[in-house]
Fold this protein.
Amino acid sequence: MHTENKGQFVTLEGIEGVGKSSHLPAIRRYFESRGHRVVTTREPGGTPLGERLRQLLLQDKSLQICDDTELMLMFAARAEHLSQVIRPELENGSVVISDRFTDSTFAYQGGGRGLPQDRIAELEHWVQGGLRPDLTLLFDAPVEIALQRAARRSNKDRIEDQELSFFEDVRNCFLRRCQMEPERFVRIDSSRSYDEVEAAVLSALKRRYE
Ligand code: TMP
């Protein structure tokens, strides 16, 4: 357990189309069956302000947003999320499962948009202090496979509208972070079938918590 957290802070990460959100209910059930109170949430979002920022950041494609503004809005939504949901719930001893967190900022605004990693790290330190996820499941698949799956869903949002090389950079950044922090990350090979991915997720949770 991360020293700051009384509960458990679990984050799901990966590029679009890797299926992380569809495995969230099974992860929730796993912790509930072990008697934990579980809160599921997402970023950007998770609070009324965060959801409005999400709308601005992702849905309104006509809105011009420069890269620095995008970065700071992600952290503005996160500051609110930490203050209203994540910190109080961890203090209560809950398991908080967030569909995306700061690894996405390093990967998308850093790897994808090309903003300096140390600038992101400064904001991370400012907004989070020492708080980091206890466990991060990185759902990973080759970009072509993931984007084909994502394309089957509804309209692309402002960030999903990027070209292939953007997502290669995002994926590589996630993989580098996974290699740098092997004690926090578990990489889930998401190029397999839904059932195989779910089995891999559950076995990762069992290895970690049983
Ligand atoms: P999703 O929740 O459907 O994956 O969509 C969220 C989008 O927001 C996705 O394209 C990744 C992007 N995003 C960032 O660019 N930076 C961030 O810090 C976060 C949390 C998400």
